[in-house]
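User: For a teaching handout, I'd like to show students what a predicted protein-ligand complex looks like in token form. I'll give you the sequence and the SMILES for zinc ion. Please answer with just the structure.
Assistant: Understood, here is the input followed by the structure.
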Amino acid sequence: MEIIVLIVAGLSVGSFFNVVIYRLPRGENLAYPRSRCPSCNKPLRWFHNIPVVSFLVLRGRCAYCRAPISCRYPLVEIATAGMFWLCWSRFHSQPVHALFCAVFLSILLVLALIDLEHMILPDELTLGGAVVFLVYAFFHPGFASPWNGVATAFGAAALFAGIYFFYVKVRGMEGLGFGDVKLMLMLGAFLGLEGLVVALLLASFFGLLVGGFMILFRGKTLKLALPFGPFLSLGAFFSLFWAEQILAAIRSWFAVE
Ligand SMILES: [Zn+2]
């Protein structure tokens, strides 16, 4: 029963995230007007808007003009439901923490998809998330002291700001966006020092993997600019659930016996 409620809630909230991902970077109002087809601009009826189901019934096309609908829509809905279920199954003995985990992952999912498409990380999400999770650091059940989160947040942001200004000054270009600096506040505040280190290691690893693939097989050069937000989000996701196991694995790989 719990599972069904969570999945339905996740799918519906995910449907709202699709609206945020589309409208926030375009500076549009999130609540009004009702959803329209981006191709023919006709307002959608409620039965065109049922998460996943409508996409399948309409076979991925607009009901009016038959323009293809991105499969991002059902995927975001399914991912949100999956995240909700994961947070609950892992942290149900601490319901408040489970809720904050779900908020954390939701913000990261929306940020990652906006960054992929627009190469920006909106302040509403990075700084808004920073405020929420800096306050939450004082109640975090995993932290012995709230300063673990607060110091990690500001330390990591300072480090990233240093890298940012180094690139701008020395190389005359942005090595990473300033949005990534702001994102560090939220990640550090919620993951704490160990969790953030794991997230950054994974993000760099994923970034190198994808960057290397694009250079080797897609004819890109080293000047290739990839948004770092999606990799950070993915790293933070794995770190949130499996930081200890990942750290143990890294230690055992590098252990000198
Ligand atoms: Zn249409």
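For the handout, you might add this sentence: Residues 119-257 form one domain.
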